[in-house]
Write a structure and sequence with these properties.
By secondary structure, the protein is mostly helical. 72% of the residues lie in helices and 1% in strands. It is elongated and about 100 Å long. It starts with a helix and ends with a helix. It is a multi-pass membrane protein.
Length: 582
C-alpha cells in the first residue's frame, strides 16, 4: 500500500470512528500518532526516538501559543453568563407584543429572539434549549403546526454560530490563517440575510396556509397598559407624545391623577416623555454614525496624515495637495443617504402620529429588555470592525459586559457563575484538544502524501473556479449530515484551502460560504444536534421525525442563500473591502 493510500485511509477511518461515537479530538490524535509512527519509522532507530513524538510536542505547543484562540474562552464565557443569567424571557414577551399583528406572530418573535440572542451568546445548544423552553409550548398551545414551531426554533438557534461574534469564525481563521476581523465583517450581511430569508419563509407559509399558525387570542395580544396612562390620555390627549409634552409645561391636571403607588409625579411624566423619544434618538444616532464614518472621519484622517509643505525624501515635489473633497464619498452616497433619511422621517412621522399608550408601553418594554443587550452586542462588534480593539480585547469587553448585565438584572448568583465558568473551561479545553489533534492529523496526512494526492486529483479534473466551488461546497454539505461543524472545519477544510489559490478564489468568500453551508450540519439528520437539543425539552408527543421534517425546508433556504451569495459576491465582500480595503 502506497503512502498516499495510507493518507486516504486515515481520512476514511476518521469519519467511521467519529460516527461510531469516539471523541473527535482523541481520535484525531490517536490516528495521527499511529500513522505518523509508521511514516517516520526507521528500523535503525529505537521506537522511542521516532520523530512522531517530536511532531506531537511541536503541534501541541503551536496550538497553545496561537493568539487567535485566546478570544474563544472569553466569547464562550460571555455566552454562558448570558445563558445562565436568564435574560431572554422578557425579551421574547416584548418582541411578541411588537409583532402581534403579523401572521405567525409567535414564530416571527421566536426567530427574531433566536437571531438576537444567538448573536449575543453564540451558543447553538443554549439558544435552542432556551427557546424550546420559552416558546415551543406557547406555540403548540396556540395551535401552531409542530413542524413550523420546531423548524423555527432549530433553524433560528443555529444563526448564532454564523453571525459575529462567532466561535466558528475564530476556528476557521486559525485554521486558514485569515484575519478574524475581516471574516467577522464578511459574515455580517450574509448572516442577517439568511435570517431575513427565514422570516420571509415563515410569514409566507403562514399567509398561504393560515391553519398552521392561527391568530393569537385577545388576551395574548393585549398590551398591559397601566391605569394611569388611560386617565392621562383622557386628561390631556390620546397621543402620548403630545400629552406628555403638554404635561411638562402645564402639570396642574397631572397632579390630580393617580400613578403607580401614589399621585402621578413630574419625574414619571418626564421619564415617559424620554421613552417616547427613543425611536427618534436611535434613528438619528444611526444616521449620524453613518454620516460621521463615511464623510467626516475620512476627511479628518486625511488632514492629519501629512503636514503641509513636506515632501517625500528622494521623490518629486507634489504638484497639488489632496483636499478633503478629493477623498470624499461618491455622489451616489449622498443620494442614497438622502433617500434613507427622508424615508426614515416619513416612517417616524407616521409612527408618532399614532403614538398611543399601547405603543409607548411596547417601546418601554423593548427598551428595558433589548436595549442593554443590544448596546453590549453592538459595542463588541463595533470595537472589532472599526479596529479600536483586537478580537481578544473585544471578547474581554463582551464578557465583562455580560457580567454587568446579569448582575443588573439580579439573575446571576454564585452557583450560576460557577456553572458558567466550568462550562467555559470545558468548552475551551475541547476546542484546544481539537486543534492539537487536528494539527497532528493534518501534518501526518501531508507527510504521507494524502494532501498532494487530493490536489493532483482535483487539478487533473481540469475544473473551472465555479465547478471547484460547487464541488467543494457539495462535499462539505454532504459531510454535514454525519459530522458536526468542528470536525468539518478542523479536518476537511484544510484539504481544500491550498487549492483556493490555484482557482483564484478569495478564502474569505469561500470561508463565509462554508459558514452558511455548515448551518445545514445543524439541520441535517442523523447528527442534527439542534433536533436533539429541542427534543430534550419538548413535550412527549412531539417526535424526532416531526422535528426533522420541520428542519428540512430551512436546508433548502441555506442552499438558496449560498447561490445568491455566489452570484452577488458584494453581499459578502463589500463590508470588509470598504472597512479594510481589498
Amino acid at each position: 500500500m502506497s503512502d498516499p493510500a495510507l493518507g486516504l485511509t486515515m481520512l476514511m477511518l476518521i469519519v467511521v470512528v467519529i460516527m461510531m461515537g469516539f471523541p473527535t479530538a482523541f481520535t484525531l490524535m490517536g490516528l495521527g500518532m499511529f500513522f505518523g509512527f509508521y511514516a517516520f519509522y526507521n528500523p535503525a532507530e529505537s521506537w522511542f526516538d521516532n520523530r512522531v513524538f517530536d511532531l506531537m510536542v511541536q503541534r501541541t505547543y503551536g496550538a497553545m501559543t496561537n493568539d487567535v484562540l485566546i478570544s474563544i474562552p472569553l466569547f464562550v464565557l460571555m455566552g454562558y453568563v448570558m445563558e445562565r443569567g436568564a435574560l431572554v424571557d422578557k425579551m421574547f414577551y416584548s418582541i411578541q407584543l411588537s409583532f402581534r399583528r403579523l401572521p405567525a406572530a409567535l414564530a416571527v418573535a421566536t426567530l427574531i429572539v433566536c437571531t438576537f440572542w444567538g448573536i449575543a451568546s453564540g451558543l447553538v445548544g443554549a439558544v435552542v434549549v432556551l427557546m424550546g423552553v420559552i416558546a415551543f409550548n406557547p406555540m403548540l398551545r396556540a395551535g401552531y403546526d409542530v413542524k413550523l414551531a420546531s423548524g423555527v426554533i432549530t433553524a433560528g438557534g443555529t444563526l448564532g454560530i454564523l453571525i459575529p461574534p462567532s466561535v466558528m469564525i475564530i476556528v476557521y481563521a486559525a485554521v486558514a490563517g485569515q484575519s478574524v476581523v475581516k471574516l467577522y465583517a464578511a459574515a455580517m450581511f450574509p448572516g442577517f440575510f439568511l435570517a431575513f430569508l427565514y422570516l420571509v419563509y415563515v410569514i409566507g407559509w403562514a399567509m398561504i396556509n393560515p391553519k398552521i399558525a392561527p391568530p393569537l387570542p385577545e388576551e395574548q395580544t393585549r398590551v398591559p397598559v397601566p391605569e394611569w396612562m388611560r386617565k392621562f390620555q383622557a386628561a390631556y390627549s390620546n397621543n402620548m407624545l403630545v400629552g406628555l409634552f403638554s404635561a411638562l409645561f402645564s402639570p396642574a391636571r397631572m397632579k390630580n391623577l393617580d400613578g403607580d403607588g401614589g399621585h402621578l409625579t413630574y419625574w414619571t411624566v418626564f421619564k415617559n416623555f424620554l421613552a417616547t423619544l427613543i425611536p427618534l434618538a436611535l434613528t438619528a444616532l444611526t444616521l449620524w454614525l453613518v454620516w460621521w464614518y463615511v464623510v467626516i472621519h475620512p476627511q479628518a484622517s486625511a488632514e492629519g496624515e501629512a503636514p503641509e509643505g513636506l515632501e517625500q525624501l528622494g521623490g518629486p515635489a507634489v504638484s497639488a495637495p489632496v483636499t478633503p473633497t478629493d477623498i470624499g464619498p461618491a455622489t451616489t452616497f449622498y443620494v442614497v443617504f438622502g433617500i434613507a433619511a427622508a424615508l426614515a422621517l416619513v416612517i417616524l412621522a407616521r409612527y408618532y402620529r399614532n403614538m398611543n399608550a399601547e405603543r409607548l408601553q411596547v417601546v418601554k418594554l423593548l427598551s428595558s429588555s433589548i436595549m442593554p443587550l443590544g448596546i453590549l452586542t453592538l459595542l463588541v462588534l463595533a470595537v472589532i470592525l472599526f479596529g479600536i480593539t483586537t478580537a481578544t480585547e473585544s471578547a474581554a469587553v463582551g464578557a465583562a459586559g455580560a457580567f454587568l448585565l446579569a448582575f443588573q438584572a439580579r439573575t446571576l448568583n454564585w452557583k450560576r457563575t460557577k456553572e458558567a465558568v466550568f462550562l467555559t473551561a470545558k468548552t475551551t479545553a475541547m476546542v484546544c484538544w481539537l486543534f492539537v489533534g487536528s494539527a497532528l492529523f493534518s501534518a501526518v496526512f501531508a507527510i504521507l502524501g494524502g494532501q498532494g494526492l487530493v490536489e493532483r486529483w482535483v487539478l487533473a479534473m481540469d475544473l473551472t473556479p465555479v465547478q471547484f466551488m460547487i464541488l467543494s461546497q457539495a462535499v462539505i454539505f454532504i459531510l454535514g449530515w454525519p459530522l458536526e461543524w468542528t470536525e468539518i472545519i478542523i479536518i476537511f477544510v484544510p484539504i481544500f484551502l491550498p487549492l483556493l489559490k490555484h482557482f483564484n478564489i478569495d478564502p474569505v468568500l469561500w470561508g463565509v460560504l462554508v459558514f452558511v453551508n455548515l448551518q445545514a450540519a445543524f439541520l441535517s439528520p442523523p447528527v442534527a444536534m439542534s433536533a436533539f437539543y429541542l427534543k430534550g425539552v419538548s413535550p412527549p408527543h412531539v417526535t424526532l421525525n416531526q422535528i426533522f421534517a420541520g428542519m428540512m425546508p430551512y436546508m433548502l433556504i441555506v442552499i438558496i442563500c449560498m447561490i445568491l451569495m455566489y452570484l452577488w459576491p458584494g453581499l459578502t465582500l463589500w463590508l470588509p473591502n470598504y472597512l479594510y480595503g481589498s
